[in-house]
Write a structure and sequence with these properties.
Structural class: alpha+beta
Number of helices: 8
Number of domains: 2
Oligomer: single chain
Strand order of the largest sheet: 7-5-6-9-8
Order of helices and strands: HEEHEHEEEEHHEEHHH
Length: 272
C-alpha cells in the first residue's frame, strides 16, 4: 500500500491547529481539571501544575503517552508524583491541568523547556539583568521578524511580546544559524542577522504570505495555511535530494515551536 506523506502531514497540521484553536478560543474550553467530571483524552500530552505567588509562578510538567491514565493515577496516588509538588491535603483534581499533544516527543520537549522553572508575572516590567529568565521576546513589527533571546532594556518592554522559553529546549544559536538556508527556501529574504542576543529577518516583500504566516507563528502560535503549503511543497520537491531529512527536521521544528507557543499561551491564561 502506497504511503502518502503529504496527506498525513496535512492532516496532522489540521488536527493540531484545531486543538490549538479550541484551546485558545475560550478559557472555559481549556482542559482544566477544576471540574469533577472532566473528559481527559487518551492521547499523549503533559499534565502540569502552577504554583503561584503575587509576583511569580512555577510550572511543573509531567509528560505522558496517555493523559487519561496518568491523570487518573495522579488523582489516586498523588504521593507517587513528587515532581508536581501537589498538596496532599487539597483536592488533587482541582490543581491538575493538562495539555494535549500529538506525540510524546512534543510532550517531552515541553517538559524540557518549562519544568520547574520560575517566571515573573509581568516579566517585561521586572527585568533581572543579572539573572534573566529563559523567555524570548518578539518585537512588534510588520516589516520584519525580530526576536530577543533576553530582554535587558526597559525602554523595549512596551514594544515586545513575551514568547516564553520556546527556544530553551534547543541549542538555538547553532540551530538557527544552520537553518538560514531553510528560511531562504520558505521566503525571499533581504537580510538575516543572528547575534548572541537577537535574531532578525527582513523579507524582500513584507506582504509575502509565507513570511506573514512565519511571523504569525510567533505572534499567535499557529501555523497558517500558506506556510504549511510551502512546507509540504518543499518536502515533495526534495524527496530525492541529499538534504531531504534535514528539511523534514526543519519543518518538524517549526511545528514544535507552534506547540510550545500554544502551551505557553495556555499557561498565561491560567495565571491569577
Amino acid at each position: 500500500m502506497e504511503f502518502d506523506i503529504s496527506t498525513l502531514v496535512d492532516e496532522t497540521f489540521n488536527h493540531f491547529n484545531q486543538i490549538n484553536s479550541d484551546i485558545l478560543k475560550n478559557e472555559d474550553d481549556i482542559a482544566i481539571a477544576k471540574q469533577e467530571k472532566i473528559l481527559v483524552p487518551s492521547s499523549p500530552g503533559v499534565v502540569f501544575t502552577l504554583s503561584q505567588s503575587d509576583s511569580t509562578y512555577i510550572v511543573r510538567v509531567l509528560d505522558t503517552r496517555c493523559l487519561s491514565e496518568t491523570f487518573e493515577d495522579i488523582t489516586q496516588f498523588p504521593e507517587n508524583y513528587p515532581s508536581l509538588r501537589l498538596n496532599l491535603d487539597d483536592n488533587i483534581k482541582s490543581n491538575l491541568l493538562f495539555f494535549e499533544c500529538i506525540d510524546i516527543k512534543i510532550a517531552k520537549t515541553i517538559k524540557k523547556a518549562l519544568h520547574a522553572k520560575r517566571f515573573s508575572k509581568n516579566e517585561e516590567f521586572i527585568l533581572n539583568i543579572s539573572d534573566p529568565s529563559d523567555s524570548c521576546w518578539l518585537a512588534k513589527s510588520e516589516d520584519s521578524l525580530k526576536i530577543f533571546f533576553n530582554l535587558s532594556k526597559t525602554n523595549e518592554s512596551d514594544s515586545v511580546i513575551n514568547l516564553g522559553p520556546i527556544f530553551s529546549a534547543y541549542d538555538y544559536q547553532d540551530k538557527l544559524n544552520k537553518l538560514y538556508g531553510y528560511f531562504k527556501m520558505l521566503f525571499d529574504m533581504k537580510s538575516f542577522s543572528l547575534t548572541q542576543n537577537t535574531i532578525e529577518m527582513i523579507p524582500v516583500n513584507n506582504s509575502d504570505l509565507v513570511f506573514n504566516d512565519f511571523r504569525n507563528l510567533f505572534y499567535n502560535a499557529n501555523l497558517g495555511q500558506n506556510i504549511r503549503s510551502k512546507m509540504l511543497e518543499l518536502e515533495q520537491k526534495s524527496k530525492d535530494e541529499s538534504y531531504y531529512k534535514d528539511l523534514v527536521d526543519a519543518n518538524n521544528w517549526l511545528y514544535e515551536l507552534s506547540i510550545l507557543g500554544s502551551f505557553w499561551k495556555n499557561v498565561q491564561l491560567k495565571l491569577n
